[in-house]
């Protein structure tokens, strides 16, 4: 979570983190930026190591201001911008050098021509997928990983590429940028020999082994598959809710209270949560640890949340409820660097009121990325993959699921990584002990 208001507090403020990294990575990005310009006239090929590289490539003016998230410093936003321009773009978010870009381009050209075989095919590119890849590669299973190409509008690297600083992943006491964390994960996967393909899986055939995993242009035949395609936190759209100029996403607005709630900008400040289900109740209760007060804003006059969750949340003296209401605008604080408040419309009377808050958290659900499975794995009512308790085994033997795509409760990078490890170990066990018996 980024905040202009934290700029005077080095080490604790994400903006500081962003400015420092911009200074320290300049020479690398200059090299890459030169290469990008060379490549641009033919097929625009973009390799991104950090958001800075995008800034260099784009000649970002915002760099001087050091305020909030600049348009070009955000890979997902750059990607959608370039896509709209209709360019052919190949983007490896975690490539760290011009050499990586060239390698990635040439391997992709060759890869598009043939069907590949592997012991383990991993689908996804978040912490779950890369942890599975690291374990599978070290076990000499020669994994192939499809990292996706703007799958669900998220860049390779997953949900963490949409946030600024991650402060709760072990091993980084000063925090680490989400993009950088995923960059490191990808490097580690590759270092042990994972073959990474920047393509989105569009179909699978789990009816027989080897399993078939297809993209628009290729097929991988795999003895086992790990699905780690994650989920997308739903966001609401109204003036001021977005990224970039005039928007307060990551500058007071978030979709993850557990991830961002402890940030200094929210301490002892009034906060709001939008939603009416269990998540909204849980997030509101969680935020009372830090906030001066928490408002739960809900469109209806009854909550969807279970009675017990409602009781726990609504009996908390710090929580107030604003029913029959929706947020119609978010606006900035004094210097407009961070969220200052909300305009709220009563859907019954039409009256618009003002609510001064420093934080707004969407708790309106997640969508697991399971459509491409075509109903071949058992899903729960919300579309999450069902796994056998205590394992990552899905309803199809030899197919495993890890991370947010099978977890609607914890939804954290470290839990995703944990289940990624489990999936690789489960796959290894399956390949060594079970598959040979079944053959
Ligand atoms: C704004 C925000 C901030 C967060 N902050 C934190 C934090 O501070 N700490 C924390 O622990 N957690 C945080 N989280 C939660 C954390 O990001 C997730 O729990 C974690 O990323 C889940 O990892 P995953 O591996 O399951 O999948 P994801 O990170 O969801 O990644 C899945 C990837 O798979 C790719 N994919 C999807 N479909 C396909 C397909 N068909 N073919 C190929 N690829 C595909 C997607 O492009 C995506 O990149 C945050 C989440 C958000 C949204």
From TrEMBL:
Residue ranges of the region described as Disordered: 1-29
Keyword NADP in record: yes
InterPro entries: FAD/NAD-bd_sf, FAD/NAD-binding_dom, Ferredoxin-NADP_redctase_2, Pyr_nucl-diS_OxRdtase_2_AS, Thioredox_Rdtase
Pfam families the UniProt entry points to: Pyr_redox_2 (PF07992)
PROSITE patterns the UniProt entry points to: PYRIDINE_REDOX_2 (PS00573)
Catalytic activity: [thioredoxin]-dithiol + NADP(+) = [thioredoxin]-disulfide + NADPH + H(+)
UniProt keyword terms in alphabetical order: Disulfide bond, FAD, Flavoprotein, NADP, Oxidoreductase, Redox-active center
Keyword Cell membrane on entry: no
GO molecular function: thioredoxin-disulfide reductase (NADPH) activity
Cofactor names: FAD
Note describing how the cofactor binds: Binds 1 FAD per subunit.
An individual GO BP term: removal of superoxide radicals
Entry coiled-coil feature ranges: none
EC number assigned by the record: 1.8.1.9
Quaternary context: Homodimer.
Record-linked NCBIfam families: TRX_reduct
Protein name: Thioredoxin reductase
Organism: Rhamnella rubrinervis
């Amino acid at each position: 979570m980024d905040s202009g208001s934290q700029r005077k507090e080095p080490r604790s403020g994400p903006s500081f983190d962003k400015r420092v990294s911009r200074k320290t990575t300049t020479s690398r990005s200059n090299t890459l930026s030169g290469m990008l310009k060379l490549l641009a006239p033919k097929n625009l090929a973009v390799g991104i190591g950090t958001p800075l590289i995008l800034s260099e490539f784009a000649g970002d003016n915002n760099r001087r201001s050091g305020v909030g998230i600049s348009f070009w410093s955000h890979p997902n936003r750059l990607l959608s911008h370039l896509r709209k321009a209709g360019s052919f773009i190949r983007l490896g978010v975690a490539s760290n050098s011009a050499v990586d870009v060239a390698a990635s381009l040439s391997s992709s050209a060759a890869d598009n021509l043939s069907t590949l075989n592997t012991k383990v095919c991993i689908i996804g590119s978040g912490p779950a997928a890369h942890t599975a890849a690291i374990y599978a590669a070290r076990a000499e299973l020669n994994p192939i990983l499809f990292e996706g190409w703007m799958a669900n509008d998220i860049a390779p690297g997953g949900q963490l590429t949409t946030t600024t600083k991650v402060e709760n992943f072990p091993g980084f006491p000063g925090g680490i940028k989400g993009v950088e964390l995923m960059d490191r994960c990808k490097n580690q996967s590759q270092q042990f020999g994972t073959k990474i393909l920047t393509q989105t899986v569009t179909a699978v055939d789990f009816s027989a082994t080897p399993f078939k995993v297809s993209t628009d242009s290729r097929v991988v035949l795999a003895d086992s598959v790990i699905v780690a395609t994650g989920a997308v936190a739903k966001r609401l759209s109204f003036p001021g809710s977005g990224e970039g100029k005039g928007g307060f996403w990551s500058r007071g607005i978030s979709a993850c209270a557990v991830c961002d709630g402890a940030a200094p900008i929210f301490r002892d400040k009034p906060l709001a949560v939008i939603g009416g289900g269990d998540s909204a109740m849980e997030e509101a209760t969680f935020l009372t640890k830090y906030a001066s007060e928490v408002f739960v804003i809900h469109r209806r006059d009854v909550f969807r949340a279970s009675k017990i969750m409602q009781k726990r949340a609504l009996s908390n003296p710090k929580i107030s409820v604003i029913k029959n209401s929706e947020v119609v605008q978010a606006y900035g604080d004094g210097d407009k660097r961070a969220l200052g408040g909300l305009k709220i419309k009563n859907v019954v009377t039409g009256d618009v009121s003002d609510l001064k808050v420093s934080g707004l958290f969407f708790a309106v659900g997640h969508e697991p990325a399971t459509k491409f499975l075509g109903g071949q794995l058992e899903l729960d009512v919300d579309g999450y993959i069902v796994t056998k308790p205590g394992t990552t085994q899905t309803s199809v033997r030899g197919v495993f699921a890890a991370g947010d795509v099978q977890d609607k409760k914890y939804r954290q990078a470290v839990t995703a990584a944990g289940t990624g490890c489990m999936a690789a170990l489960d796959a290894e066990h399956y390949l060594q002990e079970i598959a040979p018996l079944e053959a």
